[in-house]
Design goal:
Blueprint (H helix, E strand, L loop, with lengths): L2 E2 L4 E2 L8 E4 L3 E5 L4 E3 L2 E3 L8 E3 L2 E3 L2 H6 L3 E6 L4 E6 L4 E5 L3 E6 L3 E5 L2 E6 L2 E10 L12 E9 L5 E10 L9 E11 L4 E8 L5 H10 L1 E2 L2
Antiparallel strand pairs: 1-2, 3-4, 4-7, 5-6, 7-8, 9-10, 11-12, 12-20, 13-14, 14-15, 15-19, 16-17, 17-18, 18-19
């Protein structure tokens, strides 16, 4: 297979029908490709497309690299796209039915099919499997105030992202409010939801998304 364009453009003979004009300089064609990484299908985010130009497939570099466990950066001054292996900063966590990648600086406690993430002994997130019967609503944590939710594109299954404010039970007399982000991976045919959650105080947006995108089910 011939490759060019930063080493990430796949040379495949293609046929399609919808033309796209980019920057008034090329005539490309939308190509509805399916992507499978290590046997598992991954869907493009809504803002990404695959193009056919001169018989070659042009693949979104961030989508491809991140799903292969790499980090993508762009240097605007030199107009350089940088792709680096992510193994130096991330560790692969394997539970009974899934795996995901989290920073090596985190401590991970695996309890059968649930995992918990800690920094300096403080829990900052985790993944728990909840029962889910479609079309029921997503699981809401105890002592929580719902803020917002939305359905995400680009994952191997339906994913609902939700934000909450959580408080301690009244008996604790603790006024602490914790802001949480949760990614619910809804597996309809198994009536399960993989509930991936993070404490927003300790985890930035990019790290949350990278971890969510790394989740892979083990058959």
């Amino acid at each position: 297979m011939k490759t060019f364009l930063l080493g990430l453009t796949c040379g495949i003979v293609l046929t399609a029908s919808t033309a796209v004009y980019a920057s008034n300089t090329i005539n490309a064609i939308l190509f509805p490709a399916k992507y499978i990484f290590n046997g598992q299908e991954k869907k493009l985010d809504s803002e990404y497309v695959t193009l056919n130009y001169n018989g070659h497939a042009y693949v979104p570099i961030r989508f491809l690299a991140e799903n292969m466990g790499s980090i993508v950066g762009y240097d605007e001054n030199t107009q350089t796209i940088k792709v680096n292996d992510n193994t130096d900063s991330m560790q692969i966590v394997k539970a009974n039915s899934y795996s995901l990648a989290v920073p090596k600086t985190w401590t991970v406690d695996i309890q059968q099919d649930n995992v918990y993430f800690c920094i300096d002994g403080k829990e900052i997130g985790g993944l728990e499997i909840e029962g889910y019967i479609p079309p029921d609503t997503i699981y809401f944590p105890n002592h929580s105030e719902f803020m917002e939710k939305k359905t995400l594109d680009g994952y191997f299954t339906t994913v609902v992202r939700a934000s909450f404010k959580r408080t301690q039970p009244a008996a604790f007399q603790d006024p602490t409010v914790t802001k949480e982000t949760r990614f619910y991976f809804l597996i309809d045919n198994k009536e399960l939801a993989y509930d991936l959650y993070f404490n927003q105080e300790y985890i930035d947006e990019e790290t949350m998304i990278n971890i969510a995108k790394s989740l892979t089910l083990i058959k």
